Amino acid sequence: MVQQRLRPFLAALGQAGGTHICVAHKAVIRAIFAAAHDWNMLGRPPVKLCWEQAHMFEVDASGGVRPRQMNVPLAAVEDTPQ
């Protein structure tokens, strides 16, 4: 249900293009993560998430998501050229 509710928001981001930073609760991040990894949220996740680090996803115009990079130290995100 969370994934369905996120789809219009993600589609708007994908249609806008560019790079976006979103801050969200763990449940929202896990829903996006599950969709990106085609994980049904049963059993262990395909990648263990470090919650004090950033998680990067690519979003297409239909709101579909793909993993780009998980567990990115925040210093590395700050140093990324625009």
User: Helicity, in percent?
Assistant: 25-40%
Distance between the termini: 34 Å
Q: Give the mean pLDDT.
A: 91
The tally of structural domains comes to 1
Q: Using only CA atoms, what is the Rg?
A: 13 Å
Major sheet attributes: 2 strands, antiparallel
> Treating each run of at least 4 consecutive H or I residues as one helix, how many helices?
3
Q: Can you characterise this structure?
A:
The protein is an alpha+beta fold and 82 residues long. The protein has one domain (2-78). The chain has three helices and two strands, in the order ααββα. It has helices at 2-16, 26-36, 74-78; strands at 54-59, 65-72. A two-stranded antiparallel ribbon has the order 1-2. It is globular and about 30 Å long. The N and C termini lie far apart (34 Å). The mean pLDDT is 91.
Report a brief summary of the structure.
This protein is α+β, with helices and mostly antiparallel strands and 82 residues long.
What are the main properties of this structure?
82 residues; alpha+beta; two-stranded antiparallel sheet
SSE inventory with pairings:
Elements: H1 2-16, H2 26-36, E1 54-59, E2 65-72, H3 74-78
Antiparallel strand pairs: 1-2
